[in-house]
Design brief:
Low-confidence stretches: none
Radius of gyration: 23 Å
Bound molecules: adenosine-5'-diphosphate-glucose
Strand order of the largest sheet: 5-6-4-1-7-8-9-12-11-10
Number of helices: 16
Oligomer: single chain
Number of domains: 2
CATH topology of the largest domain: Rossmann fold
Structural class: alpha/beta
Mean pLDDT: 96
Strand content: 15-25%
Length: 459
């Protein structure tokens, strides 16, 4: 098997299958992580180990746009127990402040261990001597230690895209020691924020007997670096699209379709219970209740990408959101005029940027979120420094986007007041705030993020 000096391991490959008609093949997946890592992997003739998204399909490695893709076969049992079970019904809710109820099942866990072991074996077989491996996210937390056992010569990095919970929550995990041992197999553990890093370091001291000093954890005879590497966006690309005259036309069309001079609040999320879409809609309802005359001409647009639809909690949040949309339109809409526009689908990137440009206010109000790229994308798209960002204090992005209006997403009245305040903010103030945030996303891009992590890892 051909070996690579840089190997990325992630739940999914950076490509997805094109099965349009009979025309078979692959296309690069959209998203910041792929656009950041793909050029680096390409330059270094790197490999990417991950799942194709197909169940029970065995595929040979293949090259797509200069990157070697190494598929890991995922069975139905892997999918149901490891991916839907441990990843999305145990770890996802537990790591997100238990805003959903985590479930713990031993047979799910066994499958997670098994699938992580197969990832580690595959990675071990494609990494060259003294190579560098970068493992991504909560699906693969056991891989660093498993890989170290197989390949003590390689440098191993791990990055967690979601929050790392505080110790009283983490302690609930029946496999808390195994997960820490898995993560501590890495040389560098990256987290989104300083508070995630603190949480992680504390639990390793408590359950794995590490000694912490500054950003270093001493574990047995090894030193591990644990630090915050806040992820970001491809700012140049968004600015470029936002400046395109065709996108500006699209922005104008959206505004016209929404009713000419109407003011607009936008929400853009995966349809996930951590994103606080329901409470945000309630806040908009409250705004209309509190100032019915002032906001008669305001519309709320909520774009929601379907997500994890087989899981009950996701079905529940969807019905709840749709019920609220119905209630608000039922109460405040007119014939031919809705006050809430709800699209449950993914938009092409260009249309999304046009929406960002069209929105007077962007409401990003998750109950808990590792970073939240939507907040940064909105800022990057506001080339003329207009627009106001309402940002949950529980999103990782709040630590960097300090001049957003920070809101408590549990406080519906507070959020309604914040919307009111945003609409009345003097232009000089909103521009000053937006300018400061634009400076942040121009400096801290996804490329700078990847470089900083790999420099620390020695890749
Ligand atoms: P997510 O929970 O998926 O990511 P987020 O960071 O907001 O959350 O990224 C969502 C992405 O999907 C954005 O790039 C956005 O543009 C896109 N998107 C959302 N709705 C869309 C729509 N209707 N149409 C098209 N595109 C849409 C996880 C963590 C986050 C962390 C990221 C990266 O939960 O906290 O920021 O990983 O580390």
């Amino acid at each position: 098997m051909q070996r690579s000096r840089l190997v990325i391991a992630a739940n999914t490959l950076p490509v997805r299958r094109l099965d349009k008609g009979r025309q078979e093949g692959w296309t690069t997946s959209p998203g910041g992580l792929v656009s950041a890592l793909a050029p680096i992997a390409r330059d270094q003739e790197g490999a990417w180990v991950g799942w194709t998204g197909e169940i029970d399909v065995d595929r040979e490695p293949f090259v797509h746009e200069g990157i070697r893709n190494i598929p890991v076969k995922v069975s139905l049992a892997d999918y149901e127990n490891s991916y839907e079970g441990v990843c999305n019904r145990t770890l996802w809710p537990l790591y997100h402040d238990a805003v959903g109820e985590p479930e713990y099942h031993r047979h799910w866990w066994r499958q997670y261990v098994d699938l992580n072991a197969r990832f580690a074996e595959t990675v071990a077989s494609v990494t060259s001597a003294n190579g560098v491996v970068w493992v991504q996210d909560y699906h693969l937390q056991l891989v660093p230690a498993m890989l170290r056992d197989l390949r003590p010569d390689v440098r191993i990095g791990f990055f967690l895209h979601i929050p790392f919970p505080p110790e009283d929550l983490y302690d609930r995990l029946p496999w808390r020691t195994e997960v820490l041992h898995g993560l501590l197999g890495a040389d560098v553990v990256g987290l989104q924020t300083r508070s995630d890093t603190r949480n992680f370091m504390r639990v390793t001291v408590r359950h794995a007997g590490t000694k912490a000093s500054g950003n270093t954890l001493q574990y047995g005879n090894r030193d591990i670096k644990a630090a915050a590497y806040p992820i970001s966006i491809d700012t140049d690309r968004i600015e470029h699209v936002a400046a395109d005259p065709a996108i500006l036309e699209q922005t104008k069309t959206f505004r016209k379709q929404l009713g000419g001079g109407r003011r607009m609040i936008l929400g853009v999320d995966r349809l996930d219970y951590t994103k606080g879409i329901d409470l945000r809609l309630k806040a908009f309802h409250q705004l209309l209740e509190d100032w019915p005359d002032a906001y008669r001409e305001t519309v709320f647009v909520q774009l929601a990408v379907p997500s994890r639809e087989r899981i009950a909690e996701y079905q529940t949040v969807r019905s709840h959101v749709e019920e609220l949309v119905g209630q608000i339109n039922g109460r405040y809409g007119e014939i031919g005029i809705a006050v809430v526009h709800y699209l449950r689908r993914s938009l092409p990137f260009e249309e999304l940027v046009a929406m960002y440009r069209a929105a007077d206010i962007m409401a990003v109000t998750p109950l808990c979120d590792g970073m939240n790229l939507v907040a940064k994308e909105y800022v990057a798209a506001r080339l003329d420094d207009t627009g106001v960002l309402l940002l949950s204090e529980f999103a990782g992005a709040a630590a960097e986007l300090r001049t957003a209006i920070h809101v408590n997403p549990h406080d519906v009245n507070g959020m309604a007041d914040a919307m009111h305040r945003a609409f009345h903010m003097p232009e000089a103030e909103s521009k000053r705030r937006m300018r400061a945030m634009r400076r942040v996303v121009r400096k801290h891009t996804i490329h700078a993020w990847a470089r900083a992590f790999l420099d620390d890892l020695g890749g």
